[in-house]
Each structure stands twice: as C-alpha cells, then as structure tokens.
Amino acid sequence: MNFTFSRRTEQAQRRKSIALRGQSVLVNEKSPIECLKEPIFQLASSIETLQKKFRGIANTGTPKKSPFKSPRKSPFKFKSPRKIPAKTQLTPSPVNKHFQFPTSLIKNIKSPESTPIPTPTKMPPPTLAPLNIKKKPNLIPIKNFIKRVIDGLPLKYREQQPHRKNVEDLLRQLFVNPKGLKFEEIMQQSKLKRVRCNEYLVALVHAKEVIKENITGSGQNGQIFKINPIKYPLL
Predict the structure, then answer these.
(1) Which contacts qualify for 170-173: CB closer than 8 Å, 24 or more apart?
(2) Burial of 167 (0-12, 13-18, 19+ CB in 10 A)
(3) What ranges does the record list as Pro residues composition bias (predicted)?
(4) 138 to each of 122, 171, 212, how far by Cα in Å?
(5) Does residue 157 contact residue 202 with C-beta atoms inside 8 Å?
(6) Would you tell me the crossing angle of helices 183-190 and 194-206 to the nearest 10 degrees?
(7) Could you give the C-alpha distances from 172 to 31, 145, 151, 166, 189, in angstroms and in order?
(8) CB neighbour list of residue 203: distance below 8 Å, 6 or more residues apart
(9) Are 190 and 169 in contact (CB under 8 A)?
(10) What is the dihedral of CA 64, 66, 71, 77, to 10 degrees?
(11) What is the pLDDT along the chain (235 residues), one digit of tens a residue?
(12) pTM to 2 decimals?
C-alpha cells in the first residue's frame, strides 16, 4: 500500500510540474502579431498627424491662387497667360542698313582695290673710280742690264767689238720680249748666222743670264729662250 501511494503521489507531482512548465512557456512566448501591434498603432498615429499637417499647409493663403490646392496640378502652370503692359516699347527689328558695314567689308575682301604698285626707280649704276694701276717700273734700264750681263761673260764677248755688238743686239731682243723667243725668231731679228746665234745663246745660258724652256701644246712645240726670271724678276 505504501508503495502504491508513493507512486501515485510521485506521478501527481510530475503532472503538476509539467502543467506549471507549460503555463510559464505560454506566458513567456508571445505570437509575432501581438508583438507588432504596438508599433503598428504608433505608425498609424504618426501618419495621421502628418496628413493633418499637409492639409494645413495646403489651406494656407488664398484658395484661388494657391498652386498647392490640388496635388494633381503642377505648381508651374498658370491659369491665365501673363499680360504685357500697353506702354511697353519693343525694340525695332533690324533693317538692311544695320548690315551695310559687313556687306561692304565682304565686298572689299572679294574685290580688293587695284592699288598701283610703285615701280622702283632705276638707280644709275655706281661709277667706280678707275683704279690707278701703276705699271711696274723697269728698275734696271736696258743699258745697265746689257752692261751687267756682258760684264759677266768671257773676255771674248766683252772686248772684241763685233762679238760684243752682236750679244747686245741679242739681249735687246730678249729684253723687249720677256716671254721668250724661239731660236729662229732670234736669228731672224738679229740677222745673225745660225752658228753665231747658237754660240751666243750657249754662252748666255752657261752664264745663267738666259734660260731655255721646252713648250708644248696650243700649236707651239719647241724651245724658247728668255731672260732668267729668278735673276731678274722685275724685268
């Protein structure tokens, strides 16, 4: 008996504890709708107050001229167009005279005036003063030159009169023609025989008073005899 009683009491206590636990869970746990009730009511009240404020703003001022009376109408539209006062002076439209300067300017650009180009006056050529080119003076006169050459020759051409006179004539021809003469030309002008003319020229070449040069080209071939330019540069 005692065993059955204790068992019954234990079961009763267990049932009681389970019931109490279920009640606490129901009390602590609320549904989502119940949790959102209070915020929804607050939001509805704030919306209602906001609508009241908008109505007050729309009703301010005269109802005819207020552009915010109807939210469907644009605030930038006017019921009647703006009237222009009767005394307003409008600027006149441009006429052709206002465009005269540009058209004249364009004409001047298209057809430039033919201005005469000044032709330069011909200046006379500058007259240059004639150059006073002085001829090289013969520092050695012909007489002194002949005497100087003969004094350097052997005694035969210095003291013997016919030989001296022939050598003087030959030197005079070479002095007048500093560019030189051929053997035949010297023989013709001095009127000497070939043997004598050759003898005098050999003596003068040996004394280095006269030089012998070979010429070629320009139709002239042969030898010429002329006074030594190194010894007598100013002749």
Answers:
(1) 170/197, 170/200, 170/201, 170/204, 171/145, 171/146, 171/204, 172/142, 172/146
(2) buried
(3) 115-128
(4) 46, 15, 23
(5) no
(6) 120
(7) 160, 9, 15, 10, 11
(8) 153, 154, 157, 167
(9) yes
(10) 90
(11) 444 556 677 777 777 777 766 555 444 556 777 778 888 888 888 898 988 888 888 777 555 555 555 545 555 555 555 665 666 666 766 655 555 555 555 555 555 555 667 677 777 777 766 666 555 554 568 888 888 888 888 888 888 888 899 899 898 888 888 888 898 998 888 888 899 999 999 999 999 989 988 887 666 677 889 988 888 886 6
(12) 0.40
User: DSSP states of 213-232 as a string?
Assistant: EEE-STT--EEEEEE-TTT-
Distance CA 171, CA 186 (A): 10
Distances (CA, A) of 179 to 2, 15, 91, 130: 182, 167, 105, 28
- Cα separation, 223 vs 212, in Å, equals 7
pLDDT of residue 140: 66
Cβ-based neighbours of 138, under 8 Å, separated by 6 or more: 234, 235
Q: Which of 101, 199, 123 is nearest to 156 (CA)?
A: 199
Q: Residue 199 corresponds to which amino acid?
A: E
CA–CA separation, 14 and 77 (whole Å): 81
Q: How far is residue 150's CA from residue 159's CA, in Å, rounded to a whole number?
A: 10
Both tokens of 109, joined, read 């650009």
How many Å apart are CA 235 and CA 233, to the nearest integer?
6
pLDDT score of 76 = 52
